[in-house]
Amino acid sequence: MTSAVRVHAIEIKNKPLTEGRPAHWANEQGTTFKNPWSSWRNHDWRDQLYIVFKHPIAMPSQSSSANLASVIPVHKPTWKHEGNDSQKLKATWLGHASFFVELPARRSEKDDSLTANIPSRGARILFDPIFSDYCAPIKLPSLKRITPPACSVDGLPEVDAVVISHDHYDHLDGPTITKLAASSRKPHFFAPKGNQEILKYFGVPESNCHILDWWQSRRVEVLVPVKDEPSQTVPVLFDLTCTPNQHNTGRNFMDRFRHPDTLWSSWVAREVLSEPDSASAKTVFFAGDTGYRAVLDGQDEDTVPVCEAFKQIGEHFRPIDLAMIPVGAYMPRKFMSPVHCSPKDSALLFKDLKATNGLGMHWGTFVLTTEPVMDPPMKLKEACEELGIEDGTFVCTDLGQTRLY
Ligand SMILES: [Zn+2]
Fold first, then answer.
1. How far does the centroid of ligand 1 lie from the alpha carbon of residue 10, in Å?
2. 374 alpha carbon – ligand 1 mean position (Å)
3. Which parts of the sequence bind an N-acyl-1,2-diacyl-sn-glycero-3-phosphoethanolamine (predicted)?
4. Residues annotated within a binding site
5. What is d(CA 159, CA 145) in angstroms, rounded to the nearest whole number?
6. Which of 135, 158, 203, 305 is the most buried (most CB within 10 A)?
């Protein structure tokens, strides 16, 4: 039996609110956006010249990347987990920022039946899926993937929710969206403000499209088959909240020169369990694409302002069981630091969240920047050591590897 998904608007408790127009709205209507923190720096025209004309030729060549890529193992994912493992949170890195997350297979708040109907699986969320060979509208050899996705779209188990962080090509991949939207599974799609039209263009029906502003939430109810009784269903629930991060958006050259009309975001998903289990509800944070602080050449990194959003998110949603955080595409720092974390930024961000576990992403798949391809996991390990993060707590995995929590 195919699972059905229902989505309800909800208000999160103690939502951080400011009076009047939200600080990230660049106009009264909330149709253009900006980063509201002193940790942000706008790229000026000199930066834009570098990014558009010089940066593409400064990147490591694809041939040297291809050699390095052979040391990032790719595993065929194992989706089925039995016994105690089915009660755990599962996260599988599929490449770049694409993560497949399955929440524990547990009875939810809404299931008040007296019979102990155990769900056959937990709710499934697919973050920023990209399965295309190129992260660009044109097939530039320099933007071809250096590692394959861990599986194909057809190789995924049934997906309930597809969550998009922003509209850059490496995070909102048209062909992948079209394929997921056309599947008989009919997942629901969640994206920050301004993305309705593009999702519609790629085939997402309005009924399955949910567009949120920062600090807005939806309750997602998935009817899944009962374990050992697949003709019956049982609801599993989770709350999904659109949360801030520091980035920008745009799919065209001219988008670089105006306030973007689509928003960027991170996301938090939390299981909804009935009492007395609600305290053990698992929470995951997906950082999307984000910077942490803006550093100019010659500046001491540790003296510049950092993005306040992550402490706020950590405070609001604690405890966060798993945080998926970008660790790659950070060089040259002068240009990339406002929008992308270095591994040390990622480790600091992880500490701000006070998350229990972390997984690295946004590396080892496309060559977007000038750091050597294998640097992010190595430098993340060094940064974690330096910042006193326990070994093995915040790591990068192989492609297709599932971590259980
Ligand atoms: Zn981006």
1. 28
2. 20
3. 169, 340
4. 169, 340
5. 24
6. 135
Helix 309-317 and helix 343-353, axial crossing angle in degrees, nearest 10 = 40
Three-state DSSP class for residue 368: coil
Residues 287-333: tens digit of each pLDDT: 999 999 999 988 999 999 999 999 999 999 999 999 999 999 999 99
**pTM of structure:** 0.94
83 CB burial (10 A radius; 0-12, 13-18, 19+): exposed
| pLDDT tens column, 219-274 | 999 999 998 888 899 999 999 999 999 999 999 766 667 789 999 999 999 999 98
Distance 3 CA to ligand 1 centre (A): 32
Expressed in angstroms and rounded, the spacing between residue 338 Cα and the centre of ligand 1 is 11
Q: For residue 193, report the distance from its CA to the centre of ligand 1, in Å.
A: 15
Comparing CA positions, the residue from 13, 79, 22 lying closest to residue 239 is 13
Distance from the CA of 209 to the center of ligand 1, in angstroms? 21
| Fold that domain 4-14+23-404 belongs to in CATH | Metallo-beta-lactamase; Chain A (3.60.15)
Determine the distance separating the centroid of ligand 1 and the alpha carbon of 114, expressed in angstroms.
Answer: 47
Tokens at residue 367, please? 């060559």
List of long-range contacts for 34-37, beta carbons under 8 Å, 24+ apart: 34/259, 35/246, 35/247, 35/248, 35/338, 37/246, 37/305, 37/307, 37/308, 37/309
On whether the CB atoms of residues 173 and 151 are closer than 8 A, the answer is no
CA 7, 21, 264: angle at the middle one, nearest 5? Answer: 55
